[in-house]
Amino acid sequence: MTREEATDILHQYTKSESLLRHARTVELVMRAYAQQQNQDPELWGNTGLLHDADYEAYPEQHPQVIVNLLKEKGEPEMAHAISGHYSHWGVPHESLLDKALLGCDEITGFVVACAQVRPQRLEGLEAKSVLKKLKQASFAASVDRGEVKLGAELLEVDLAQHIDFIIKTLQPHAQELNLNPVPSGGD
């Protein structure tokens, strides 16, 4: 599947700007990890891009709609990874792709949430700040901290290093992601 095909599928199901941004951020991080791990960046990126594609249109059936579509399109690796990107669904994490998607999804969304509450956004954001926010249960309360921890374990990376990797991956894309620093008033 090409990125263009994956993007078309995403836009068929997803209209929300925040979900589109989440899809793009997870895609970017997955592509970066694929390159680091000598894996297929197209496969990994497209998996990240489409992991929540059906969430907005079919929240009660998520992720089965996108999983079934990917199976029909001959993308079993993507389908399996997406079917297990939340550990409570009970799908085994067999491949590095499976582990990477679970490992990148929640924490990437959390890093973006941390950036959004800072005037400097991604600029100067450090892993220690993100780790501190993770301890605040009320901040980005929908983020499953257990999934964040499990994801780092599955990837066999230190959580702080993982967060740092995500920040560094997203920073060059700050403008596209609408995460540029907020201009200060006056001079």
Automatic annotation (TrEMBL):
Signal peptide: none
Domain HD: 20-90
Pfam families assigned to the protein according to its UniProt record, in alphabetical order: HD
Protein name: HD domain-containing protein
